[in-house]
Every structure is written in structure tokens, then in C-alpha cells.
Amino acid sequence: MKRIFAIMLAVFMMAGMLSVFAACEPSTQITLRVLENDTAKKEGYLDYLLNAFNEKYKDENVVAVDANMDEYSNLEQDGPYGHGPDVLYQANDVLMKYVDGHHIMPINVTEMDVFEQVPQNAWDAYKYDNNGEIVYCGIPVNVQQPLLYYRKDMLPEDWQTEWDDNDNGIPDMVEFWNELYLYSQSIRKSDMSKYGFALQLNNEYFNSGFLFTYGGYIFGNNNTDDTDIGLSAGNAKLGGKIIWDLAGIMDEKCLDDTFTTGRESMLANGTIFATICTPDMTSSFVKELSAVYRKEGLSEEEALKKVDENLVITGLPKLPANGDITVRQDVTDDSLWVAHKTMGGVNGYGISSYTKNREWALKFVEFATSEEMVLKRAEMLGVVPARADALQQVGDEVAEIIFNNLDDGTIVVMPSISAVGQIWLPISSGFKQIATDGCGDCLYTMDDIQAVLETIDDNIYKAIHTFG
Fold first, then answer.
1. How far from 212 is each of 18, 372, 432, CA to CA, in Å?
2. What does the alpha-carbon distance between residue 219 and residue 12 come to, in Å, rounded to a whole number?
3. pTM score, two decimals?
4. Cα separation of 41 and 381, whole Å?
5. How far is Cα 419 from Cα 458, in angstroms, rounded to an integer?
6. Is 110 in contact with 313 (CB distance < 8 Å)?
7. What are the residues whose beta carbons fall under 8 Å from the beta carbon of 37, sequence distance 6 or more?
8. What is the pLDDT of residues 387-442, one digit of tens each?
9. Which of 196, 430, 176 is nearest to 327 (CA)?
10. Which of 122, 149, 334, 410 sits a CA distance of 20 to 30 A from 384?
């Protein structure tokens, strides 16, 4: 009995010691690394999102943090070694290029509240056919499309009598490319230090729409067949000629990133009248222009009010059906004009297949794509929400333009196949070649422009199927 009692006492003592040790040992905290874009970080939205998530789950031993990586980090290279993020915010073409290698995780979106709030054409950007089963590998947050940004206070004083031939109260130079070209030409002639319209013309995202408008396309079969490349198809050379013509009202700055890195400050200080950008950069334009107004002596409130009056964001001007933007055409005759198609995208969240915390990564994505957070993102960054409930609360005319363009095909959503990664350099190189001649020797014929576009197609094909 003494031996049995001693054994039992030893067991109880050991159990007590183990429980003490267990109580003293801290449990492992779950850390989610979140990759966001630079604008969200710079404008404070990422901090707001992380703090809100961490506050909600403060008792769950989980914390979401900035992945502290370049916004275009390569999940395919980083993920297998544990260096990649758990959650990524990217455009659909970036997220979906990870699908073929199973680097991105399919998400059961049909059971989430966001599913009914996002239109199918936005979901299609993240749709993937997995051996006959349709899955989604991302959740849409906002819709992207290039828009026209211009300064209302830089319009000529006589615009209502001389630049509004269709009498609709909107300046013709922001409705029709021909008028914008002629107005820009007049600004350059009067002051060579200033520009009317200005854009980096070798930028493949902002300028591909000129080709799409006249029959060009990236991949065949609704951007899914990477053996059929058609940027030179149809009358796409007319779009190429427009890039060439626009270079003529600029200078060598249109050949590098000058009009991209400096667009907000150049618009704010009056160096340029108009440019093209995406709505997620609106906050940067507002900040730059309000700073200029404050230097003129206005209070912060007065400066923001003046920005609201003078910074106008609208859809892209209409293009001439015949492709010639250099001559004035009748703006009252609708048959002479076509909608400017444009490359666009759907930005959203995806989950890395390499995350060790799938359930928490999914909870974070659900939180980040909730109505409250999407609305906050729109408020802080000026983006166009993909959620219908958030869009309704934003009540923005530009947002409606973008959604209508998505519905009617004016927005050509970037391909959601891995081969899309091979298109950018050939397109940029070809556009640079066209613009270099346009702002320089001006020797190109339509045949020369067609040859450049065909070379782009050929180089993309080689990059995908030969060198790839």
C-alpha cells in the first residue's frame, strides 16, 4: 500500500508540474503577412485595415502585419521558400498568373456575403476552369480603368462659346480626342514649357485601348487563347497612328516615365492640362493640388473645396471612327465617333497556397472585402468599389461610368492567364518605337506602324511559346 501510495503521489506531482510548465509556456501567435499596393500604404489605408482586423480579433492570438515587401513581389519564387505573403492584393492579371502552378488558393466564394454583391463580369476576372469545375482564385475589391484627369480652371475663358459645339455644357476637348489634340497643340504653340494632354506613351496599360478600339486584341477566344495574338488585327494601325500623333504634341518626355512619376505635381502646378490615370491614384492628385492652393494662401478647408471645384475626373474622350484625330470633325454627328475602349482590370485579394494559416487568411480576406472595409478604401483612396452595396453608398458618377463600361465591353479586362506576364515588354517596346518617331523625325507611314504592331505580336508569341 505504501508503494502504491508513493507511485500515485509521484504521478500527481508530475502532472502538477507539467500543468505549471504548460501554463508558463506562451502559446504560439499566428502572424498573417499582408501584401498591399504602395498607394494603400502611403495613404494610410493598410494601417487602418490592419488595425481594424487586429482589434476585432485581439483575443484570438492572431495578428495581421504588413508583409513589408515590394508590391509586385513574385509569389512563385518566394512562396515555396516561406518568404512570400499569406494574403495578396493585386490586379487580376497578377493574381491569376499564379494559378497554373497552384501558387494561389481557390476560395469557396459562393458561401461568402460578398458573392451576391459583386457582378459576375467582375468575378469572371478570377474564374478558373479546374478540369471542368469552375473555381475562383480571388475576391474582387475594386474595378480599374484609365480615366481622364483635367483642370477645370485651366480651360480657356471662351470655352462655352468656342469649345462646346454640341451645346451640352461640357468642354469639347474633354469629350472628343480631336478637340483635345487641337487644344493641346494650341497650348504648346503658345508656351513650349507647357502641355495640353500629356501621357507616357510607351505605357502598355494606358495606350493599348487605342488598338482595341479599332479591332486589336491581346489573345483570341476572349483572351484565353495565347496562340492567337492580335494587337495588329483589324484596323489597329489606326490606334497606333493615334499614339504617333499624340507624341507630336509632346516631346521626349513621353518616351520615359516622366509623365507618370510627375503627373500629379505637373497637373497641380499647371504644367499640363490633362492626363490619364486610374481612380486609385485620385488621393495623390488631391494632395498635390491642395498643397498648391495652400501655398497661395488658402486654408486646408478652402484648398480642398477648390480642388473639388477644379479637379475633374471623367471617362475617356470619344475617338473618331476614321481614326484621324488631327482634324476637326462634327461633334454633333454621333456616326463619326466611337467609344474609346480601354484596358482595365479588377483588383482583389488572393490567398497564397503556401500560407500555414489558411483559415485565418480566409477570415482576413473576408474582413478586407466586407462592405465596411471596401467603402473605407473607396473613401481614402478614391477607388471604384466592386461591391454593389458599397458602390451605391459612394454614389459617384465616375463609378457608374466604369461599371457601365465593364458591362458593355468598353473595358477590356486584362487576361487572367499566366501568359499575360509575357505581353508587357513587347508592347511597351513597340509603343516606344512608334512614339519616338512621332515626337522626332516623323517618317513613319501607316505601313511602318502596321509592321511595328505585327512585330509586337510576333515577339509576344516568341516570349510565350519559344523562349518561355
1. 70, 36, 18
2. 72
3. 0.84
4. 10
5. 14
6. no
7. 71, 89, 90, 280, 347
8. 989 988 987 788 888 878 887 889 999 998 889 989 999 999 999 999 999 999 99
9. 176
10. 334
